[in-house]
Design a protein that fits this description.
Elements: E1 16-22, E2 25-31, H1 43-51, E3 57-62, H2 68-76, E4 79-85, H3 88-100, E5 106-109, E6 120-125, H4 133-142, E7 147-158, H5 163-170, E8 175-182, E9 185-191
Parallel strand pairs: 3-4, 3-6, 4-5, 6-7
Antiparallel strand pairs: 1-2, 7-9, 8-9
Amino acid sequence: MNHYFTNNDNIKSDEQKITVKINNQIFTFITDNGVFSKKGLDFGTRTLLENIPTLTGDILDFGCGYGPIGIYIKKNNNCNVDMIDINKRSLKLALKNSELNNVDVNIFESNIYSKITKKYDYIISNPPIRVGKEILYKILFQAKEYLKESGELWIVVNKDQGAKSILKDLNKKYQVTLITKNKGFYIIKAANC
Protein backbone atom coordinates (compact mmCIF):
# COMPACT_ATOMS: atom_id res chain seq x y z
CA MET A 1 0.00 0.00 0.00
CA ASN A 2 1.28 3.44 -0.92
CA HIS A 3 1.11 6.02 1.82
CA TYR A 4 0.81 9.76 1.47
CA PHE A 5 4.25 10.32 3.03
CA THR A 6 6.05 8.55 0.20
CA ASN A 7 6.85 9.67 -3.33
CA ASN A 8 5.44 7.22 -5.84
CA ASP A 9 5.29 8.36 -9.45
CA ASN A 10 3.20 5.29 -10.33
CA ILE A 11 0.14 6.69 -8.54
CA LYS A 12 -2.09 8.07 -11.27
CA SER A 13 -2.92 11.75 -10.85
CA ASP A 14 -6.59 12.68 -10.59
CA GLU A 15 -6.77 16.25 -9.35
CA GLN A 16 -10.07 17.43 -7.91
CA LYS A 17 -11.28 20.69 -6.40
CA ILE A 18 -12.95 20.54 -3.02
CA THR A 19 -14.63 23.29 -1.04
CA VAL A 20 -14.42 23.28 2.74
CA LYS A 21 -15.82 25.51 5.45
CA ILE A 22 -13.60 26.13 8.48
CA ASN A 23 -14.88 28.44 11.21
CA ASN A 24 -17.45 29.89 8.79
CA GLN A 25 -14.84 30.63 6.11
CA ILE A 26 -14.91 28.98 2.70
CA PHE A 27 -11.68 27.55 1.26
CA THR A 28 -11.10 25.82 -2.07
CA PHE A 29 -8.38 23.20 -2.32
CA ILE A 30 -7.07 21.06 -5.16
CA THR A 31 -6.42 17.50 -3.99
CA ASP A 32 -5.12 14.39 -5.73
CA ASN A 33 -4.43 10.69 -5.36
CA GLY A 34 -1.41 9.92 -3.17
CA VAL A 35 -2.05 12.70 -0.64
CA PHE A 36 -3.68 12.57 2.77
CA SER A 37 -7.44 13.19 2.96
CA LYS A 38 -7.95 13.83 -0.73
CA LYS A 39 -11.77 13.73 -0.55
CA GLY A 40 -12.14 16.54 1.95
CA LEU A 41 -10.77 18.10 5.10
CA ASP A 42 -10.34 15.34 7.68
CA PHE A 43 -12.07 15.70 11.04
CA GLY A 44 -8.80 15.77 13.01
CA THR A 45 -7.36 18.68 11.02
CA ARG A 46 -10.67 20.54 11.24
CA THR A 47 -10.74 20.08 15.02
CA LEU A 48 -7.13 21.29 15.29
CA LEU A 49 -7.85 24.43 13.24
CA GLU A 50 -11.05 25.18 15.17
CA ASN A 51 -9.05 25.17 18.42
CA ILE A 52 -5.91 27.07 17.42
CA PRO A 53 -5.66 30.49 19.11
CA THR A 54 -4.58 33.69 17.37
CA LEU A 55 -0.97 33.25 16.28
CA THR A 56 1.86 35.66 15.57
CA GLY A 57 5.49 35.23 14.62
CA ASP A 58 6.99 32.34 12.68
CA ILE A 59 4.85 29.25 12.09
CA LEU A 60 5.87 25.86 10.65
CA ASP A 61 3.18 23.64 9.13
CA PHE A 62 4.88 20.24 9.42
CA GLY A 63 3.66 17.65 6.89
CA CYS A 64 1.54 20.22 5.11
CA GLY A 65 -0.08 17.88 2.59
CA TYR A 66 -2.12 19.92 0.13
CA GLY A 67 -1.96 22.86 2.54
CA PRO A 68 -5.10 23.36 4.66
CA ILE A 69 -3.32 24.06 7.97
CA GLY A 70 -0.75 26.58 6.74
CA ILE A 71 -3.19 28.29 4.38
CA TYR A 72 -5.88 28.64 7.06
CA ILE A 73 -3.36 29.97 9.60
CA LYS A 74 -1.88 32.51 7.17
CA LYS A 75 -5.34 33.69 6.11
CA ASN A 76 -6.38 34.34 9.72
CA ASN A 77 -3.22 35.57 11.43
CA ASN A 78 -0.52 38.18 11.02
CA CYS A 79 2.39 35.74 10.84
CA ASN A 80 5.03 34.14 8.61
CA VAL A 81 4.20 30.59 7.53
CA ASP A 82 6.60 27.92 6.28
CA MET A 83 5.05 24.68 5.01
CA ILE A 84 7.04 21.46 4.59
CA ASP A 85 6.37 17.94 3.40
CA ILE A 86 8.36 15.05 1.98
CA ASN A 87 5.68 14.21 -0.61
CA LYS A 88 6.42 16.11 -3.83
CA ARG A 89 2.82 15.85 -5.07
CA SER A 90 1.61 17.38 -1.81
CA LEU A 91 4.07 20.25 -2.18
CA LYS A 92 2.88 21.01 -5.73
CA LEU A 93 -0.72 21.02 -4.52
CA ALA A 94 0.11 23.20 -1.52
CA LEU A 95 1.69 25.75 -3.88
CA LYS A 96 -1.38 25.72 -6.17
CA ASN A 97 -3.68 26.02 -3.15
CA SER A 98 -1.76 28.91 -1.63
CA GLU A 99 -2.24 30.79 -4.90
CA LEU A 100 -5.89 29.71 -5.15
CA ASN A 101 -6.57 31.03 -1.64
CA ASN A 102 -4.44 34.19 -2.07
CA VAL A 103 -1.94 33.60 0.72
CA ASP A 104 1.79 34.24 0.74
CA VAL A 105 3.54 31.26 2.33
CA ASN A 106 6.93 29.59 1.94
CA ILE A 107 6.62 25.95 0.78
CA PHE A 108 9.54 23.54 0.51
CA GLU A 109 10.54 19.88 0.70
CA SER A 110 12.07 18.58 3.91
CA ASN A 111 12.65 15.08 5.27
CA ILE A 112 11.59 15.63 8.87
CA TYR A 113 13.61 18.77 9.80
CA SER A 114 16.53 18.26 7.39
CA LYS A 115 15.95 21.55 5.52
CA ILE A 116 14.88 23.66 8.50
CA THR A 117 17.37 26.41 9.30
CA LYS A 118 15.52 28.57 11.84
CA LYS A 119 13.41 28.41 14.98
CA TYR A 120 9.65 28.86 15.16
CA ASP A 121 7.11 30.26 17.58
CA TYR A 122 4.74 27.43 16.64
CA ILE A 123 5.05 24.09 14.87
CA ILE A 124 1.61 22.80 13.91
CA SER A 125 0.86 19.35 12.52
CA ASN A 126 -1.55 16.54 11.94
CA PRO A 127 1.45 14.20 12.11
CA PRO A 128 1.78 11.10 9.91
CA ILE A 129 1.04 8.44 12.53
CA ARG A 130 1.44 5.60 10.02
CA VAL A 131 5.17 6.26 9.62
CA GLY A 132 5.64 4.26 12.83
CA LYS A 133 6.60 5.23 16.34
CA GLU A 134 10.33 5.72 15.70
CA ILE A 135 9.88 8.33 12.95
CA LEU A 136 6.82 9.86 14.62
CA TYR A 137 8.77 10.43 17.83
CA LYS A 138 11.62 12.03 15.85
CA ILE A 139 9.06 14.44 14.43
CA LEU A 140 7.57 15.22 17.84
CA PHE A 141 10.72 15.38 19.95
CA GLN A 142 13.11 16.96 17.43
CA ALA A 143 10.55 19.76 17.11
CA LYS A 144 12.00 21.05 20.38
CA GLU A 145 15.25 21.94 18.57
CA TYR A 146 13.32 24.10 16.08
CA LEU A 147 11.09 25.92 18.55
CA LYS A 148 11.99 29.26 20.08
CA GLU A 149 12.42 29.36 23.84
CA SER A 150 8.70 29.96 24.41
CA GLY A 151 7.62 27.99 21.31
CA GLU A 152 4.75 25.54 21.11
CA LEU A 153 4.08 22.33 19.21
CA TRP A 154 0.37 21.85 18.39
CA ILE A 155 -0.76 18.44 17.12
CA VAL A 156 -3.88 16.36 16.64
CA VAL A 157 -3.82 12.62 17.34
CA ASN A 158 -6.64 10.09 17.40
CA LYS A 159 -7.20 8.09 20.58
CA ASP A 160 -7.11 4.88 18.52
CA GLN A 161 -3.68 5.85 17.14
CA GLY A 162 -1.95 6.25 20.49
CA ALA A 163 -3.02 9.70 21.68
CA LYS A 164 -2.87 8.74 25.36
CA SER A 165 0.65 7.31 25.22
CA ILE A 166 1.86 10.20 23.04
CA LEU A 167 0.42 12.65 25.58
CA LYS A 168 2.21 10.83 28.40
CA ASP A 169 5.53 10.65 26.52
CA LEU A 170 5.42 14.32 25.45
CA ASN A 171 5.14 15.24 29.14
CA LYS A 172 8.73 14.03 29.62
CA LYS A 173 10.16 16.83 27.43
CA TYR A 174 7.45 19.49 27.17
CA GLN A 175 4.87 21.26 29.29
CA VAL A 176 1.79 19.56 27.84
CA THR A 177 -1.82 20.72 27.76
CA LEU A 178 -4.72 18.69 26.39
CA ILE A 179 -6.67 21.49 24.69
CA THR A 180 -9.75 19.44 23.82
CA LYS A 181 -11.04 16.00 22.87
CA ASN A 182 -13.58 15.63 20.08
CA LYS A 183 -14.87 12.27 18.81
CA GLY A 184 -11.63 10.55 19.80
CA PHE A 185 -9.30 13.27 18.48
CA TYR A 186 -6.96 14.88 20.99
CA ILE A 187 -5.70 18.42 20.38
CA ILE A 188 -2.39 18.64 22.21
CA LYS A 189 -0.25 21.69 22.95
CA ALA A 190 3.35 20.89 23.92
CA ALA A 191 5.17 24.00 25.09
CA ASN A 192 8.94 24.34 25.31
CA CYS A 193 10.07 24.33 28.94
